[in-house]
Design brief:
about 150 residues, 5 helices, globular, alpha/beta, binds 1,3,4-trihydroxy-5-OXO-cyclohexanecarboxylic acid
Length: about 150
């Protein structure tokens, strides 16, 4: 069975509380349950990780080398600031898909730049929780093409 690492960055643990008009009313626990169901349907083993720290996210990506077949990552605010995160993704070479709950292409100018995307095979944005399912499916299709 394929093993997929799902990484969520800063403040994703506050889903439901944080700006519900943008990110929705459902909690991070709800997101974990959603991903669990989507992974079961897709027939993959998903391991979820969330951190508010850039270094912890880099460590997690490094540890994915040789252990995971793919990564789904919502780097949250680090999308727009971190060079270390895409560097880590490129270093380990594990195929990754970037996800955003909101449509970052239609928000503030500073959110329209993603440093992460150049290290990912695809980006899914503006589809809420469903984006994580789409990212999983994209990753599986990508793996099958190889
Ligand atoms: C986000 C978009 C980012 O700009 C923001 O900083 C987040 C969440 C999203 O999922 O829509 O924290 O990645």
């Amino acid at each position: 069975m394929k093993k997929i690492l799902i990484i969520n960055g800063p403040n994703i643990n506050l889903l439901g509380l944080r700006e519900p008009e943008i990110y929705g009313a459902r909690s991070y626990a709800d997101l974990l349950a959603f991903i669990g169901e989507a992974a079961a349907e897709a027939g993959v083993e998903a391991h979820c990780f969330q951190s508010n720290s850039e270094g912890a996210i880099v460590d997690e990506i490094q540890q994915a080398y040789g252990r995971f077949d793919g990564i789904v990552i919502n780097p949250a605010a680090y999308t727009h600031t971190s060079v270390a995160i895409p560097d880590a993704l490129k270093a380990v070479g594990v195929p990754a898909v970037e996800v955003h709950l909101s449509d970052i292409s239609k928000r503030e100018a500073y959110r329209q730049v993603s440093y992460t995307s150049e290290a990912c095979v695809a980006t899914v944005a503006g589809k809420g929780f469903e984006g994580y399912r789409e990212a999983l499916e994209t990753l599986l299709a990508e793996r099958n093409e190889r």
